[in-house]
Task: structure prediction
Amino acid sequence: MSRAHEKQARHDAIVAQQQAPVLTLQTLLSTPAAFLQMHRSVNLRGQWMPNFTVYLDNRYMDGQAGFWVLTPLRLDATHTVLVQRGWVPRNFEDRTQLPEVNTPLQEVEVNGRLSPPPSAMYALSTDAEAQEPGLAQSRIRQNLDLEKFSGETGLDFNAVVLQTDAASDGLRRDWPEITAGVEKHWGYAFQWFALATTQLLLYFWFQWIKPFRHAKQTTP
Result:
């Protein structure tokens, strides 16, 4: 139960962040610490850096496998964020073929929320990219280590942003809602309380009620 309350409190804090006023580009540039306010909504303007776009493989949306597409967005000369732009299906006939994603070269407006780096998928090695020469330069990745990617691109990322605009550029953005995940803890609590209650009832039955009934039946 304490674990359930802990998760619920964490989820309530995330919801409060999501409902807070949108952080504008001016606020973020003038107060860099604002980039650390995880789950806050942001409104950004900048230019895509398509030469550093990467595709994270084996990511699902509505049960279909595909890619998460991530592209750096340069906000000004000294500030850059990595944007998880959306999801695209993959070509299963040619697994090396990249799907077509429109990336405007002019300044764009991006709405989203400050997010943790993309979750890591299971890999045969903690450093799978080092197993094959040149794989680190591939656009298709299984996982993305933000620190290594920063060193690879020479970019210092102020934050990761999950884009929440309507579907565009050939990308879907039906991101799942963040849930508290407390249901299993309440389920466990119910099971343990039910077992404890059953054990207590059995104790009274075998230690008190049954001996009492037996003694009453054998009394002349």
Q: What stands out?
A: Helices lie at 2-19, 25-30, 146-153, 183-218. Strands lie at 23-24, 41-48, 54-61, 64-74, 80-89, 108-115, 140-141, 157-163. DSSP finds four helices and eight strands in the chain. Confidence is low (pLDDT under 50) at residues 126-137.
